[in-house]
Structure formats: C-alpha cells, structure tokens
Design a protein that fits this description.
94 residues, 3 helices, globular, alpha/beta, four-stranded parallel beta sheet
Length: 94
C-alpha cells in the first residue's frame, strides 16, 4: 500500500458523506486506502461509511475508537494504516 488517508470524525455523518464523495473523485496513481475513525459517534457515521464503501475507488475502512478526543482517533487510524505514507484530513474538508 502506497499511502493511507485518515479521517477522524465525531457525530458529523452528513459532513463525512460529502468528504468521502470528494475524496472518491481524486485521481491517484498506485494503491491507497481511506480509513474513517469514528470517535465514539452516536449518529449514523458507521452506516455512512459502509454505504460508501461499495462504490469507493479504493479500500474504505471503518474503525471505531471509544476514547474521546482527536488524538486518540488519529493514533488509532495510524495504527490501522497499511500505507507507507500516512495523511490526515478533517471530516469537513473538500
């Protein structure tokens, strides 16, 4: 795997859906993955990721982090990443 993109998120399923759609339109050479780290959300975050995964152009993985906080979510995403390069973005980035 060349690189991994990590998105930590908490209760922003609608924003996340738009961000995943935006990332899906990237033209990327080589193998990559997108990891969404759900930081103890109580909304439909998991359902959004699972619905987007089927049509996503690269592996799209959902990871749950029960400890609240951005750094906990990022560290969980980094541990789950298989890419040689790790990049992060926010759940409202386009």
């Amino acid at each position: 795997m060349k690189f991994s993109i990590i998105i930590p998120t908490h209760n922003r399923a609608d924003e996340l859906r738009q961000t995943i759609d935006s990332i899906a339109r990237l033209t990327v050479p080589g193998d990559w993955e997108l990891i969404v780290v759900d930081n103890k959300s109580t909304d439909g975050t998991r359902a959004v990721v699972e619905a987007q995964a089927a049509a996503f152009p690269a592996p799209l993985r959902y990871v749950f982090e029960p400890e609240q906080g951005r750094y906990a979510a990022l560290n969980t995403g980094i541990r789950a990443a298989t890419g040689a390069i790790v990049a992060t973005t926010d759940d409202d980035a386009r």
